Amino acid sequence: MTWGNLSKGGRGGILASCVPPGGDGVRVIGYLGTAALWAGLAASLAAALTWPRARSRPLAARCTACALACAALAFVLLESALVTHDFRIGFVARQGGRDVPLYYTVTSLWSALEGSLVLWLLVLAAFAFAAGRHRSRRAATAGGHHGTDRLQRIAMTTVMLVCAAFFALTALAADPFAAADPVPADGPGPDPLLRGHPLMGVHPPLLYLGYAGLMVPFGYGVACLITGRVEVARIRAWTLVAWIPLTAGIVLGAWWSYGVLGWGGYWEWDPVENASLMPWLVATAVLHAARARSLRAWTVALAVSAFLLVLLGTFLTRSGAVASVHSFTRSAAGPALLGVLTAALVTAAGLIAWRVRRPPSDARPATAPLLGSGLLTALAGTVLLGTLFPLVADLVLGERVSVGAPYFDRMVVPGLLALLALMGAASRRRQRLARPVAGAGSSECGRGLAWPVAAGAATVAGLGSTGRHSVTALLAFGLAAFELAAIAARLLDPAVGRRRMGVLTAHAGVALAAVAVAASSGYAQQAQGRVRVGESLQVGGYDVRLDGVERQAADGAMTAAARVVVTRHGAAVGVLRPSLAFYPARGGSPVARPAIRGGLLSDLYVSVSEVDQDGAAVALRVAVNPLMSLLWASGGLMVLGGLLTLAPTRPRTSPGSALLPTRPRTAPQPASGQGRTPSEAPCESEPSSGSANARASEAGGASRPRKARMP
Amino acid sequence: MTLAALMAVPVLLAVLVHALGPGGRTDAVPERRRPDLSGRTLDGRAFALGELRGHPVLVSVWASWCDPCRAEFPLLAGAARELDGVRFLGVDLRDAPGAARAFLAETGAASFPHLADPDGRLALELGARGVPETFLLDRQGFIVDRRIGALTQDWIEGHVVPLLTP
Amino acid sequence: MTARLAALLLTVLAGVALWRSALGEPGPAERVHEIAASLRCPDCQGVSAAESSSQMALSVRAEIERRLRAGQSADAILDHFRQRYGDWIRLSPGVDGLSALLWILPVAALAAALLPAVRRRRGRGASAVLPAVPRPGRRGLPAIRRRPARRAPNPPDAEHPPSAGRSRADAVPAVVLLLLGSVAVTGGAVAVWASGRIQNAPVAEETRGGGGDAAGRARALAAAGDHDAAVRAYREALRQHPDDRAARYLMAFELVRSGRAAEAVALLEPLLATRPHDPDLLLVVGTAELTTDPARGRRTLRRFLAAAPPGHAAAPRIRALLRSSRDLPG
Fold first, then answer.
1. Nearest residue of A to residue C57 by CA position?
2. What are A412-446's pLDDT values in tens digits?
3. Residue among B1, B17, B26 whose CB faces A338 most closely
4. Domain assignment of residue A535, yes or no
5. Which chain A residue has the Cα nearest residue C147?
6. What CA–CA distance (Å, rounded) separates C204 from C216?
7. Å from A107 to nearest chain B CA?
C-alpha cells in the first residue's frame, strides 16, 4: 500500500480533502464493527475463563453465545457496508466497487484478508457455540452429572481461547472497519479473478467451515491430553462434521480454478491448494485412526495437528511467506498469525510430549486403520515438507528452490495408489468377522478379494492391449476397478448398516476421483495457436472456428470475447464465447474467462490468451478434458458418504452409548489404568465399520459388544 | 520420536519467522554468464552483441503487446539519449514486426538496435522472466544486474550510472 | 477356486500390460511435454511451462523442441535452463545436498511408521497362542500416560465425592497447563517480536511497505486521523530512507490535510525540478498550491493533466475542477 495509496485510492481523497470537503459523516458502522470485534474478544475471554468451572457453565454458555453474536454482528455490518458502498470503511474502500454486481459485492467480503477473517470469526464462533450446546443436550440425556462434563469443559476452554486469539488478531492487526483515509468516491472492486465465477460464493465459506470445524477436535484433543482420558468418539464425530464441508470446499475449489484460471487444470500443488489438502489428509487420517483402539493416542495427536496445519496453512498463504515473484504483498497480520500459530504449536507439542508415549511393542494392531491413517499422515507430511522446503532452502542455503507438481506427482501419487489398494482390501475384510477362525484369516481374506482382484487385473490387461498408456494411469484404473468391485460386492451384503454404507460411498467417491484424475491428466487433448477470423482449430473430433470478436463494457470490466462456432464431425454443437476481461479500476493484466461446454464423458474447454487490437485474430487454446464431470460427481459422493456416516443411526446406538466402550473408566480393570486389557483386542483387530456402535447395529443390535467380551 | 518432534518445532518456527522477512532476492542473477545474443534486428540487418563489447550494455526485453513496456519506454529512450557511455539494445519478444516498428516510432526508442526474437530464444538465453525486463551487462559482456518489471529512474541512477565511473 | 484362478491369470496378464507400457518409448511431443512439465513457466505463478500458454512458456516449449531435434538429451536441456535461471526454474529439486532430504524424509518416515506395524503383526500371531493374561506394566495400548495411578479406578461420576488426593491429582494437569500456557504465550510473543524485527529490517525497494516501520506507523496514524503525528512519523521515515519518494509524497499530503500546505509545497518543490513530468508529484504539489497560491496551483494541475497518462483516474476530476474555476484569474 505504499505507492498505490496515493496513485490509486488516494486520488479521490486528495480532491475530497482539498476541494470539496468529502462526506465525513459519522462512521457508525465502522465504530460498531470495531466495537463488535472487541466485544467478541471480551466475550471469548470471559467464556474461556468460565468454561473450566462446572458451576459457571450457564454463564460460559452465555458468553459463548455472546461471542457468536458479536461475530455475526461484525459480519452483517461489513456485509451491509459492502452492499451500501460505504467507502468510509477501509475494507470497502479497498475491495468494494459501485459497478460490481450484487452477488460479487456480497462475496467480496472474503476476497481479502480482513474480510475473510470476519467470515472466519463467524464460522469459528458458530462452531464454538455448537460445540458448547451439543454438550448440554447430551448432559441432559445422561442425567447431567458433572463428571462427564470435564472433557468438554476443557475442550471448550481451548476452543474459546482460539476464538479470542482470532478476535484479537482481527481487531489489532487486520481491522476491516478501520476508517478509509482518504475516503474514495469509488472502490476498485475485488480482484478480477474473484468476481468471475459463481462458485466464489460457495467454495470459500465451505472451506472455512471445514477449517474452523477442525478447531473442535483440536479442543477435544487438547482436553484428552490434559486429562489423560481419551474419548475418541467425540473427536471422530467433530472431525467428521468438519471433514464434510472441507471435502466439498476442496473439490469446489478445484472446480473454481478449472473454470477461472484459464489454463485448463484444476490442481497445481500450489501452496494455497496444499494448505487445504494437508488438513484434509490429516482429518481423514483421524477418521480412520479413530476406528482402532490401539491408535487412540495417535488419533488424539492427529486431531490436534489437523488444526495446527490449518493455522500453518493460513499463515503461509495469508502472510505472503510463500508468495511468488509477482506478488510483493506482506500483510501486517503475518506476525500476529505467526504468534497465534506459535502459541498453539508450543502448547500442542508440549502436551503431546508430556502425555503421549510410544505404544509398547506387544500392542495389538488394527492393520487397516493403522496402514490407512499412517499412509494418509505420511502423505500429509510429504505435502508439508514440499510446501515448506523452499522456505527451508531459503533459510539454510539462501537459494530460491521450487518444489512443484513433478515432485508431488512422484511422491504423493504412489501413496494415493496404495490407498486405493488398501480401501479395496479393507472393503472385503468383513468376511472374516463372520467366521473368526484363527489361522484361516489370510485365505478367507484371499477368497473374498478374488473377484475384485480379477476385475482390477482385467481392467489393466484390457486397457493395456488397446494402445500406449502410462504406468500410473493403468495402475490407477486397475486399482480403482479393484476397489469399486470390492465395494460393490460388499454392498450386495444386505446387512450393511447406514454408517458402513457411508464409508463405502465415500471410498467409492475416492476411487472414481482417481479414475477421473488419471483420465483428465493423462488423456486430455489440446491444441493452441493464433487463429484469424474464419480459421479453426481441431481437437478430438471437434472443430472450433473463430467467428468474430465481441467487445463490451459492463460491470466495471472491458471484455473482449472470441465468438467461436463449434462443430463435431460436421454436426453443429454450439457457439462459445471465451473472453478476456480487463478491470480498469483494478489495473493489472486482463484475466481470461474460459468457456466450458461440459459433457458426461468429456468437457470442451476453450480459452483465449490474447485478442488483437483490430479483432482480426486471437490466441486460442482448445482442450478436450475427459471425465471432468466424474471428478465433480466423485466429490459429491465423498460428501454424501460423509453425511451418511454422520447421520445418527438407531436410537439404541445413540452417541451416548457409543462413548461407553471407548471410555476406559467404565470398564472394570486393573488399577494402573494403562487402558483396556488385551483380551478384548481381537475385536479391534478386525476393522470393520466406522465405530463401535455401527458395528453393533450390524451385528444385530447388541449395543455394547465389547463389554460382552470382557473377562 | 517425541524428541525429534520437539526439535522440529523450533526449527519450523525459525523457518517461518525467516519466511516473513524480505524475500527480495528475485532480481539476483543466478550465475556469472555472458549471454550470446545474435540475430536479425527489426530493420533486417545482422547483429551480434560482440559489436558492443567495451561498453556497458543495457538490454531491454520488450514487446509491443506489453503495456508496462509502453509505460517504461519513454524513460529508456531518455536514458539512451542522456547516458553517453552506455549502449542500449532491445530484444523484441514474440512480436509482429509491424506492431513492433509502430511501437518504436511511438515511444521514440528507434535510436538503438532492437533484435527480433520471434520464438523467444534470445529472451531465454538472457534468462528473462517476462516483459518488461532489463539486463545490465558490463564492459566484458557479463550480466551484472537485472531488473524484473518496469524500469525506474532510481534503478538507472543506482545501478547503471555507477558502471560508467570505473 | 475359479475366481482365484481367474484372478491369478488376469494378474499375470495385467503385469505384462504394465511391463509393456513401462518399456514404451515416448513420442517427440510427449518428450517435449515431459521436459516442459518439469520446468517452471518463467512469467507465471506456480504453473509449469507445459501448461501455461504465456509467451515465455511458449518460448520454453519451442526451445525444448529445437534442442531435442538437435539431438540434446533431456538432462542437457534441463541444465541449459538451470544455467540461465538457477535452480528456481526446476519444479522438482535434484537429489543432491539439502534437496536429498526432500526425497528421503517421506520414505524414511513411512518406513518408521510401518515398521512397528509389521513387527506388531508378527507379535499378534504369537500372542494368539498365549493366554490373554494382563501383564502389569506392558499392557494395552492407549499409550496416553495417565499420571496418578490411584485415580484410575475412580469413575468420574458425581456420586463419588472428590477426595483430597484426587484434587491434588487434578492440580497436576492444571499446573502443567499453566506452565505450558505461559511458555506458549511467551513463544507467540517472541515470534511476533522476531518477525516484526525482520520485517523492519531494510529491505529491497519493492518489498518495503509492510506495517511496523515508521512509514507504516505514519500511515496508521494518518488512517486514524492524527495528521500532525503522521507528519512527524513520515519525517522520521524519511530520515531512515531519504529516497523514499512515496513517503515524501504522503507526508506532503498529510501536511496539506493538517493545514500546512505551504510546508508541503516547500517539501516537494525541489523534487519538481528533477522530475518535472511526474504526474503524481504534480498532482500533490498542485493540490497543495491550490491553498497557498490558487493561480499557480491551477497551472501545476494543468501540467499534471499534460503529463498524466491517458486514463489516470484523477484526471477527469482535475479537469472538471479546472473548468469550473476558469473564470478566476490565473
1. A263
2. 999 999 999 999 888 865 544 444 444 434 444 44
3. B17
4. yes
5. A228
6. 16
7. 28
Q: Identify the chains in contact with C, defined as 3+ C-beta pairs within 8 A.
A: A, B
A640 and A669 part of one domain: no
**What is the complex's ipTM, to 2 decimals?**
0.88
Say if residue B132 is preceded by a cis peptide, omega within 30 of 0.
yes
Chain A residues closer than 8 Å to B65 by CB: 610
Contacts of C276 in chain B (CB under 8 A): none
What percent of chain B is predicted at pLDDT more than 90?
16
Nearest-angstrom CA–CA distance, A710 and A705: 9
In which domain, by residue range, is A633 found?
Answer: 423-431+442-523+629-646
What average pLDDT does the structure give for chain A? 79
Task: Tell me which residue in A325, A341, A353 faces B6 most closely, judged by beta carbons.
Answer: A353
Residues A545 and A607 in one domain: yes
Q: What percent of chain A has pLDDT over 70?
A: 79
Chain B residues lying within 8 Å of C116, measured CB to CB? none
What are the tens digits of pLDDT across the range A43-67?
999 999 998 888 888 899 999 999 9
Number of domains observed in the structure of chain A: 3
- Find residue A537's DSSP bridge partners: A544
Q: Domain coordinates of chain B in residue numbers?
A: 34-164
Chain B: residue nearest C63 by CA?
Answer: B121
Check whether residue A661 and residue A640 sit in a common domain: no
A610: closest chain B residue by CA: B65
CB contact under 8 A, C66 and B121: yes
What's the pLDDT score for residue A648? 66
Q: Which fold has domain C27-101?
A: Helicase, Ruva Protein; domain 3 (1.10.8)
Cα(A637)–Cα(A502) distance, rounded to whole angstroms? 9
Find the CB nearest B71 among C43, C195, C309.
C309
Chains that touch B (3 or more CB pairs under 8 A): A, C
Higher local confidence (pLDDT), A469 or A7: A469
Contact C199 B17 (CB under 8 A): no
Distance, in Å, from the CA atom of C199 to the CA atom of A281, rounded to the nearest integer, reads: 33
Distance from the Cα of B54 to chain C's closest Cα (Å) equals 23
CA torsion sign for A364, A366, A370, A373 is negative
Nearest CA in chain B to C59: B120
Are A662 and A623 in a shared domain? Answer: no
Q: Which residues of C117-153 are buried (b: 16+ CB within 10 A; e: fewer)?
A: eeebeebbeebeeeeeebeeeebbbbbbebebeebbe
Q: Is residue C243 within 8 angstroms of chain A, CB to CB?
A: no
Domain with CATH 1.10.8.640 in chain C: 27-101
Average pLDDT over residues B4-18: 81
User: By three-state DSSP, how is residue A619 classified?
Assistant: strand
Return the CATH number of the domain spanning residue range C214-324.
1.25.40.10
The better pLDDT of the pair C285, A20 is held by C285
- Start-end of H helices in B43-84: 67-82
Length, in residues, of chain A: 711
Record: contact A402-C93, CB cut-off 8 A: yes
Judge whether A512 lies within some domain.
yes
**Alpha-carbon distance A400 to nearest alpha carbon in chain B (angstroms):** 8
Q: Is residue A691 part of a domain?
A: yes
Q: How far away is chain A from the Cα of C229, in angstroms, using its nearest Cα?
A: 15
pLDDT in tens, A157-181: 999 999 999 999 999 888 899 888 7
Q: How far apart are CA C125 and CA C132, in angstroms?
A: 13
Architecture of domain B34-164: 3-Layer(aba) Sandwich (3.40)
Query: What residues of C are in contact with residue B20 (Cβ under 8 Å)?
Result: 195, 198-199
Between C311 and A324, name the one with better pLDDT.
Answer: C311
pLDDT of residue A481 exceeding 50: yes
Determine contact, residues A315/A387, Cβ cutoff 8 Å.
no
| CB pair distance less than 8 Å for A349 and B6 | yes
Local confidence band at B116 (pLDDT 50, 70, 90 cut-offs): very high
The verdict on residue A582 lying in a domain is: yes
Whether the CB-CB separation of C250 and C227 falls below 8 Å is answered with: no
Residue B27: which pLDDT band, with cuts at 50, 70 and 90?
A: low
